[in-house]
Specification:
This protein is of the alpha+beta class. The chain is built from ten helices and 13 strands. Bound molecules: alpha-D-galactopyranose.
Length: about 375
């Protein structure tokens, strides 16, 4: 496999969500950061009506017919490329035949959005090789369509938006209803972010994710019998309490997570802007608890990781990040105590769960980048 003769290198980012979990598809605000763990797509035009794709991580090649992209919907890994190209074209953009090499350094199954990074980088690469300027937010929206339709996850916009539009050293306070995005400097004082993968094998994550989303839709439908709210994120905590009787117990718990998490995002953004990092940490831990008890998307592995992290004196707060059911935690840890913290958490996790967790080193980085080779 050689990188010779490709024309462009286009990258998009994995992401960590600081707070605002499982609220993007409820119209809430989220606070992700793009990571230096990236997916790079090398691309060159090939003059054919095909996308020939290779991966650095797989010993396989596929050749996708531009006029028959929908046919690859169920293909285990080509579906991300086919879906991205299909919807980009359907949105009226030019897609030319090309050879692409996908080099994804976002760990698969880590909950750091490898699939969003692939979809976003592929679309940006297709636009670039076709000689078209592109709007990063539109790339994110088309990538989301690919994820929903081809990957079968009825996801929100957070991952693809962060992957495309992230900014170095900034968190994004993204309103998932309007797509207004405020960039907030990630000034963490004596703290740093630590990412730890629970390494739990993924199982049924997609169907459980879709089930949660359906439960929030049911909550909104029931609440709308009495109040005129357009999305669950617009329901206040007191409004939810006043209408608790409308909701079955499980649906109430799901709604309570969403409503409280939206409050925590508001609180965290103010705390971060004012440098109250201990308060940010407290919100992170409260978010985890709600994701565990009310939203029930954590599991013993993520609960063990978060609990261990929270119990270390150098940690101001810790939570799962992403969809859950496995994947990573994000912790705020005093920078000069990170290695002691990591040893403590890794050892404790192995003892409790029976296999190793894994640390990822990453900075907060830009979203899409394009480089002429
Ligand atoms: C996944 C989805 C996102 C978001 C998170 C949970 O990462 O792709 O849209 O819903 O889960 O916050």
């Amino acid at each position: 496999m050689t990188l010779d003769n490709y024309t462009y290198k286009v990258t998009a980012a994995g992401r960590v969500n600081i707070i605002g979990e499982h609220v993007d598809y409820c119209g809430g605000k989220v606070m992700p950061c793009a990571l230096s763990l990236k997916c790079a797509v090398y691309v060159r035009a090939n003059g054919q009506d095909r996308i020939n794709a290779e991966w650095t991580t797989l010993d396989e090649k596929v050749s996708l017919e531009l006029n028959d992209l929908y046919a690859y919907k169920a293909h285990s890994y080509a579906k991300y490329i086919a879906g991205s190209a299909y919807f980009w074209r359907q949105a009226g953009h030019k897609v030319v035949g090309c050879d692409i090499l996908v080099d994804c350094k976002v760990p698969f199954g880590s909950g750091l959005s490898s699939s969003a990074a692939i979809e976003v980088s592929v679309i940006a690469a297709l636009a670039t090789v076709a000689g078209e300027p592109f709007d990063k937010a539109e790339v994110a929206q088309i990538a989301q369509k690919a994820e929903i339709e081809f990957a079968g996850v009825n996801c929100g916009i957070m991952d693809q938006y962060a992957s495309a539009c992230g900014r170095k050293n900034h968190a994004m306070l993204l309103d998932c209803k309007s797509l207004d995005c405020e960039y907030v400097p990630m000034e963490l004082g004596k703290y740093s972010l630590v990412l730890i993968d629970s390494c739990k094998p993924h199982s049924l994550a997609e169907s459980k994710y879709n089930e949660r989303r359906a439960e929030t839709e049911e909550a909104l439908r029931l609440l709308r019998q009495k109040s005129d709210v357009s999305c669950l994120a617009d329901v206040s905590p007191s409004q939810l309490e006043d209408n608790k009787d409308l909701l079955p117990a499980i649906i109430y718990k799901r709604a309570k997570h969403v409503v409280d998490e939206c409050e925590r995002v508001r609180f965290t953004s103010v705390a971060l802007k004012n440098g109250y990092i201990a308060a940010v940490g407290a919100a992170l831990s409260a978010s985890h608890r709600s994701l565990s008890e009310n939203y029930e998307v954590t599991g013993v592995e993520l609960d063990a990781l978060a609990r261990l992290a929270q119990s270390h004196p150098a940690c101001s707060g810790s939570r799962m990040t992403g969809a859950g059911f496995g994947g990573c935690t994000v912790s705020l840890v005093e920078t000069d105590k990170i290695s002691e913290f990591e040893d403590y958490v890794l050892t404790g996790y192995k003892k409790q769960i029976g296999y190793d967790a894994k640390i990822y080193k990453a900075d907060i980085s830009d979203g899409i980048t394009v480089k002429k080779l």
